[in-house]
Amino acid sequence: MSKVLYIDYERCIGCRACIIGCEECSGHDHMSRMFVDELNPGETVATSPTPCMHCVTPACAESCPVQAISVTADGFVLSASLEKCIGCKNCTYACPFGIPRVDDVKKMMYKCDMCYDRTSKGTPPMCASVCPTDTILFLDEEELKFHSPKEVQYKWDFDGTTIETKTVIGLPDTKGNSFGFYDGEGVQS
């Protein structure tokens, strides 16, 4: 069964262990591909981990003029190939979530690749392995139901364009519904 990266923003304490873990993942050259954003700087200490959303149809890969971004058989979108990437930033502009970063010195795009060297062998990505509050978990559908009695969002509406992702977000249950998959329009499936 395919696994997803589950994020429950309400549990994040801003410790940034996910960033440090990501830096230590092999093949990352001590450069984190996980980002932690401050939600309302100056007003609150609330933070949120921001990994790649691993879109089912990734705009970053589709916009790459040299096909440097590949997608694994199980649907994870990898960072650009060092041998192919020309640092054009098309992927950054195309991504509706603004995830890919480009190292201007190396002329290369980098982003979360779900620690594919680990996850392809059944080991959770580093961010999920080191998160002390279970904000980030690597789960299959049954585990997701057990860990999150709330709705999750894995479909996003961008002005009429729906993007489906393998990274799912736990949503506050404002309707009193039992667990279900939220489709971005208030409909469970």
Give your account of this protein's structure.
With 189 residues, the chain is α/β, with parallel strands linked by helices. Strands 6-1-8-7-9 form a five-stranded mixed β-sheet. Strands 2-3 form a two-stranded antiparallel ribbon. A hairpin with a 2-residue loop joins β7 and β8. The protein starts with a strand and ends in a 7-residue tail after the last strand.
Brief overview, please?
The protein has about 190 residues and is an alpha/beta fold. It has helices at about 15-25, 60-65, 90-95, 115-120, 125-130, 140-145; strands spanning about 5, 35-40, 45-50, 100-105, 110, 135-140, 150-160, 160-170, 180.
Number of helices, counting only DSSP H or I runs of 4 residues or more: 6
Instruction: State the major sheet.
Output: 5 strands, mixed
Q: Using DSSP, what is the number of strands?
A: 9
Spatially, the strands of the biggest sheet line up as 6-1-8-7-9
Order of SSEs:
EHEEHHEEHHEHEEE
Helix content: 10-25%
Radius of gyration: 16 Å
Low-confidence stretches: 175-189
End-to-end C-alpha gap: 18 Å
* Structural class category: alpha/beta
Form type: globular
What is the strand content? Answer: 15-25%
User: How would you state the average pLDDT, rounded?
Assistant: 85
